[in-house]
């Protein structure tokens, strides 16, 4: 599949009803003050997704870093006296990683 087709397919999926529902949910939570804008990151350790995806796999494959590094980022831990939240670039990279994994799972499913 050409890169252009892949990008087009990913964009179409993001604009689906499910993608819109998730975006609306996050926006409502932000407006209600349930979550701060800098905390809108999937907590892979607490969600059911952690039963399927390994944090160490994502850290190593997509960031070239250790599991503990990614856990510190996900938990917004204080390390060496400062918060270890995600930078904008790291958030984009995490989103791209999860999109890639979702796409690979979808391809596997489609081929069954």
Question: Can you put this structure into words, describing what you see?
Answer:
The protein is mainly α and 112 residues long. The protein contains 5 helices and 2 strands. Strands 1-2 form a two-stranded antiparallel ribbon. It is globular. The two termini are 18 Å apart.
Could you list the spans in which at least 5 consecutive residues all have pLDDT below 50?
none
Please tally the helical runs, counting DSSP H or I stretches of 4 or more residues: 5
What class would the helix/strand composition place it in?
A: mainly alpha
Largest sheet: 2 strands, antiparallel
Strand order of the largest sheet: 1-2
List SSEs in N-to-C order: HHHHEEH
| Residue-averaged pLDDT | 76
Query: What amount of the residues lies in strands?
Result: under 5%
Quickly describe the structure.
By secondary structure, the protein is mainly alpha-helical. The chain has helices at residues 3-14, 17-31, 55-63, 67-75, 88-110, and strands at residues 78-79, 82-83. It has 5 helices and 2 strands, in the order ααααββα.
